[in-house]
Amino acid sequence: MRVKASVMLFLMLAVMLLTVSVQPVQAEVQTNIKVPVNIGVFIPCAAGGAGELVFLTGNLHVLLRFTMDQAGGIHVASHFQPQGISGIGQTTGDKYQGTGVTQDQFNAKVGVEETFINNFRIIGQGNGNNFLVHETLHITINANGVATASVDNFSVDCR
Questions:
Q1: Is this prediction's pTM over 0.85?
Q2: What are 129-144's pLDDT values in tens digits?
Q3: Where are the domains of the chain?
């Protein structure tokens, strides 16, 4: 009876070890930080169309993620979002808020795919002094190094 129990225990351990050894390997590194921001931005539509300089301060929330999957693929993602970023127009004294989100996703194995979306917005008091920058970029490169898809839509608007 002891031999049977020992053999059963050995078989169960062997099955468990085999199961563990064939599990997919996946590694992930994630960083979540706040970065102090202190930048000057020219708002061309402010001050009745004359434009004005705005110095913005606050924090930028940054989330970075790096993953390797079981098939040897690499996946990188980033996320940037203003938190409490604001400033005062140097000409008008109007208050401005920094808003928006910038994201990027990059995937590679035998070929590459990347999608980048940027919404950078400086929103002012009143009408006509909101500065809006938007970009959507996507590219796919196949295993032979040939770009099979490419889109880049970029716009700057003042409202």
A1: no
A2: 999 999 999 999 999 9
A3: 25-158
